[in-house]
Structures are given as C-alpha cells and as structure tokens.
Design goal:
This protein is mostly helical. The chain has 2 domains: 34-148, no CATH class; 181-293, no CATH class. The chain is 40% helix and 5% strand. The protein has 13 helices and 5 strands. Helix 5 (158-167) packs across helix 9 and helix 9 runs antiparallel to helix 13. The protein is globular. The termini are far apart.
C-alpha cells in the first residue's frame, strides 16, 4: 500500500489503514466516467468475482450476499476475526466456478440498508468499519481494490457508458452488462456505422423507445435464445489475459457466409444449428437497431410519381 496513505497497522502479513478518499471523486478514473458505485441501486461488483459462482442467478446471489452481510455485522474488526469470516464464507460457496482462475471475494455484500447496492464490506465507509480501511485483508489486497479499473473504463466511449448507466435499474443487471466491453463496443459501433458519426447521449436518452431498445438488447445477456449450449455465464471474464475466449461461430458447417452482425453474435456466445436461426437472430438485433436509429435518422424525401 502507498506510503502517503498514512500510518498503517500490520495484521497477518497484510495491512489495515485509515480511510482514503472516496474513489468516486477521483479525477484519475480512466475514461472520465465512474462506473463502480453510480446510484442508489446501481453498482458493480463484477471485478470481485460477484457472478463467478456455480449458480449466479439473481435469487441465489441475493440470498448469498444478504447472508454474508448480516454475518459480517457480528464480526469483530480485527485481522483474525476477519480472516476467519473469509474462510467460513468461502466454504459456504463451494462448487465449480465458471472461471476457475477468477476469485470470488467473500467480502462482497450489501452496503445500504435497503439491500439495493453491492460493494465491499471492508471499505472504510462500510457500516461498522469506523473509517478504517480493511481491504488489505482481502485476497488481492487493498492496493488492487483501490487502483484496479475494469477494461470498460478504458475501452468504452463516454456516451456509451452513460447510456448503459442510464438504462440499468439495479445492481444485478448493471454489473452483468457494464463489464461486457466487447459486446457493448460491437453494438454501439454498429449504430455509429449506420449513422456515419459518433453516438451521443442526446441521440438515445430523450427517447423512451430508444432507451427501451437498448435495455432489450442488454437483456440478451440473460435471455438470448441462441446462446451456445454449455457457454459460460451469465458473468463475463473481462480480463485481457486470453483465458476463456468465446468460441467463434461455425458458419462453414452451415454452408453460409459470416453474418454482418458477427461481432455482436459472437460476443453473445451464439451457436446455431441451422441457417434460419442465424436469420432469426439477425432480425431480432436489426429490429432493436432500427428503433434506436428511427428518431435520429430523418426519413428520406417522399417519392413522387
């Protein structure tokens, strides 16, 4: 941990430190748009392995997070007790993880009384920590928790990030989609290619049906009917180390040319067993693209006889 944080107390080979400034107010966030804690009910814990569980359904994760949040309230704030809590919580979440090399942090919990926002139970601003930063006791340590930013910070255009933030209403869904930088880039790039310019927030957010169309596209993360059997998920492995790549779509086996929407279909982990299924998938996406473009692109001149 950095020397400028101030006086530290060594604990179990790791560190406990006084509070540090809230990251959400830092001018140093890559890309200039903060994505982690963004609203009363919108936050992301994906980089801490939130969805990397054998069962990452909404109900299961809600119960898991609520249980550990309640249990942590009874934990004395000392290194031994916190480490014991970590071991106990890890034992409660066994089973094969979709991404074995991706740690699921047991200190993810609800950080508001209404159980609407996920975050770090070791954060200095979390309930019961009295301004002390206990993140040095976590698996990756306090420095990683403070300084890591997922690829979406750097790889997504600011308007695209703001649009996703605006249409997502809860922590579970937001964390699933905001880390899908390749999928989001493929989708928004297709819109911009047809516009022949960059997309702005004003192109989408004032229009209710455009916002709904973006939301329906993002919902494919959970209900895409053409998802390849056995595909990992619903979480996403977004680290840039080449592990767990999504397999390409085998168009040659079906005797068809690659889809013009292949970047989107690929990132949705699509798999097809007949050419007609590709057409169905393309039509679903084209319908959403058309709804987003309709208020932006003026209709052509009326034809005269």
């Amino acid at each position: 941990m950095r020397a400028e944080i101030g006086k530290k107390v060594a604990a179990g080979g790791k560190c406990i430190a006084p509070a540090v400034p809230d990251e959400s107010h830092s001018a140093a966030v890559p890309g200039g748009v903060y994505l982690c804690q963004v609203g009363d009910a919108v936050s992301c814990g994906a980089c801490c392995g939130l969805y990397n569980c054998a069962d990452a359904s909404r109900g299961t994760l809600e119960d898991l997070i609520a249980g550990r949040t309640q249990a942590f309230r009874r934990v004395p704030r000392d290194a031994d007790a916190i480490t014991d809590f970590q071991v106990r919580m890890e034992r409660r979440n066994p089973g094969p993880r979709p991404y074995p090399d991706f740690y699921h942090c047991p200190f993810l919990g609800f950080i508001d009384a209404g159980r609407r926002r996920v975050g770090c139970l070791l954060h200095p601003m979390a309930d019961g920590n009295d301004g002390i930063d206990y993140r040095g006791l976590s698996f990756y340590g306090g420095l990683a928790c403070r300084d890591y930013f997922c690829p979406s910070y750097r790889n997504l255009a600011a308007p695209h990030k703001e649009i996703v933030k605006a249409v997502c209403a809860d922590w579970y869904f937001y964390g699933l989609v905001i880390t899908e930088d390749r999928l989001l880039n493929a989708f928004f790039s297709e819109i911009e290619k047809r516009l022949n310019r960059s997309l702005t927030m004003a192109d989408v957010l004032p229009h209710a049906d455009s916002r709904q169309a973006v939301l329906e596209f993002l919902s494919f993360k959970l209900d895409w009917p053409h998802r390849m059997p056995g595909a990992r998920g619903p979480g996403n492995y977004f680290f840039n180390d080449g592990l767990y790549p999504k397999p390409p779509i085998d168009y040659a086996r079906l005797g068809v040319a690659p889809s013009a929407l292949d970047p989107i279909l690929h990132e949705l982990s699509s798999g097809f067993n007949r050419p007609e299924a590709i057409n169905e998938a393309e039509n679903r996406i084209e319908g959403l693209l058309g709804r987003i473009l309709r208020p932006i692109v003026p209709p052509g001149p009326a034809r005269t006889c």
